[in-house]
C-alpha cells in the first residue's frame, strides 16, 4: 500500500468518525433533552441573554437567551435532515434521467442536456435562494430548493458513462436475446455506471450543509424556532463586535466539522475506490 493511500484511508476514517459523531448527536439529542442534560433549544425566558460559558450554560447563551449548547447540538438534526432529503431528491431525479438520456439518445437526450446545462450554469446558492423564496420555509421545501442544483451533476456523470458503454458487447448481447430497454437500463447498465455516484453524493452532502447555513443566514431557511446553525450565526453576528465570541464560535465549529467530515469521506472514496481517479493523481 502506497503512503498516499494509507494517509487517505486515515483521513477517511477521521471523516467517518466525525460524521458518525454528528449522526449520534442528532439521533440522541432528544433523549438528552428529556433526561435534562440539554435544555429545550426554544427556551429563552428563564435564561440571562449573552451569558458567558459557565456551569449552568457550558457554551453560554445568545442575544435572545437561548442556550448555545442545546442549539448547537440539536441544530445537527436540521442539517442532517436537509442533507439526506436533498441528496435523495437529486439522486432520484438525476440518475434515472441520466440513464434514459444516455441510452436512448435522440431528441430526448438533446432536450435533457439543454435543461441540465441551463440549471448547471446558475450558481447553486442563487438557485437555492430563488427557490426558497417560492417554496417557503420548512425542511422539505428547503431540501427541494437545495437539491435542484445537484441534479445536473448526477445526470452528467450517469449520462456520459451510459453513453460510453451502451455499445459494448454485453449490452448488444442483451439486446440480441430480446431484453427490453427497461431491463437493460436497470439490470445491465445501472450497476456499471453507478460507481462514481458515492463520491458526488458525499461532496454534495457537505455542500448542502453550507447552502442550508447560507439560507439560514439570509433568513430564508427554516422557521426561527427551529435550531439551525446558519440562523444562529446571523443572530450572533451583531454581538461579535462587543466581544461575545461564543455565540458564533460553536455553531460555526459545528458546521465546519460536519462539512470537513463529509468532504474527507468523499475524497477518500474517490482516491481508494475509483482507480481512474487514483491513477490521475499519481
What's a concise summary of this model?
With about 280 residues, the protein is mainly α.
Q: Please estimate the helix content.
A: over 70%
Given the C-alpha coordinates, what overall shape results?
elongated
Give, in order, the helices and strands.
Answer: HHHHHHHHHHHH
Task: Supply the CATH class.
Answer: Mainly Alpha
Q: Quote the average pLDDT.
A: 87
Which fold name corresponds to the CATH topology? MetI-like fold
- How many distinct folded domains? 1
DSSP strand content: under 5%
Low-confidence stretches: 277-282
Structural class: mainly alpha
Transmembrane segments: 12-38, 82-104, 111-133, 139-158, 197-223, 243-265
Pfam families: BPD_transp_1 (PF00528)
Keywords: Cell membrane, Membrane, Transmembrane, Transmembrane helix, Transport
Membrane topology: Multi-pass membrane protein
Describe the structure.
There is one protein chain. Helix content is 74%, strand content 0%. With 282 residues, the protein is mostly helical. α2 packs across α5, α2 packs parallel to α11 and α4 runs antiparallel to α5. The longest helix is centred in the N-terminal third of the chain and has 37 residues.
Defining key terms:
282 residues, MetI-like fold, single chain, 74% helix, disordered C terminus
